[in-house]
């Protein structure tokens, strides 16, 4: 079992640690470098992991190093780690949004094996979706090691071109907010139709859960599932027609395109700064 070190002990690092421990990873093989003493104590008590405030010490011990700091501070942190990484060259996994592989590689040092990951917030419930990218010469064992860490919090998808990470960000990285917005709109409409607020809340959220489980567990595709609920001349057909008349598909396409474009802009801004 490899030693996994985290640089940064925030929410996403905590989610990954939780998933790894639940998946059978020995907490004694997990080391977290975190400047906040209170947070270090919380992680140690909750998961039984080892903690330190010294990033370099964690990097020197790591066989897998997860960079879990904010994108704005990652350049400084990565450059400071470079001398230690040059010695033992652990597999590095960055979960910082918007920082491209080439920039990360330049800061960490050439030759350091590196994977770029884009998880999303449902990872905190072990229901995440993560996109991974790494160019050659990352070998199969290193790819499997990266998958092992991120699979602990949900499904993992590799993309072959880094430009597609911006699409991953638009779909799954930002995606939970789209569903929350749609559910919020449904709850508000249900209340305006006369349902009590708590009734509207429960119906909308349970319906979203049920529909998601059907989509995940059924062998049928989404159009077929939708048609299975849509009786000709019925209430669902009337509602679907209203969505289509309102341009829902075009609006969704515009929203994802806008998110992808902003992801590209943020990458350029972060790299310039």
Task: Fill in the keyword field for this structure.
alpha/beta; Rossmann fold; ProC C-terminal domain-like fold; 2 domains; 12 helices; elongated
Describe it:
By secondary structure, the chain is an alpha/beta fold. Helices cover 58% and strands 13% of the residues. The protein folds into 2 domains: 4-161, Rossmann fold (3-Layer(aba) Sandwich), CATH 3.40.50.720; 175-265, ProC C-terminal domain-like (ProC C-terminal domain-like fold). Strands 3-2-1-4-5-6-7-8 form an 8-stranded mixed β-sheet, with helices on both faces. Helix 3 (55-61) packs parallel to helix 4 (74-88). The model has no long low-confidence stretch (mean pLDDT 95).
Structural class based on helices, strands and sheet pairing? alpha/beta
Distance between the termini: 38 Å
Strand composition percent: 5-15%
Can you tell me the residue ranges where pLDDT is under 50 for at least 5 consecutive residues?
Answer: none
Number of strands: 8
Just give the CATH class of the largest domain. Answer: Alpha Beta
Q: Helix amount, in percent?
A: 55-70%
Order of strands across the biggest sheet?
Answer: 3-2-1-4-5-6-7-8
| Discrete helix count | 12
Summarize the main sheet: 8 strands, mixed
Rg value = 21 Å
Task: Work out the count of structural domains.
Answer: 2
Write the H/E string, N to C: EHEHEHEHEHEEHEHHHHHH
What's the average pLDDT?
A: 95
Query: Which CATH architecture of the largest domain would you pick?
Result: 3-Layer(aba) Sandwich
Q: Sum up the overall morphology in one term.
A: elongated
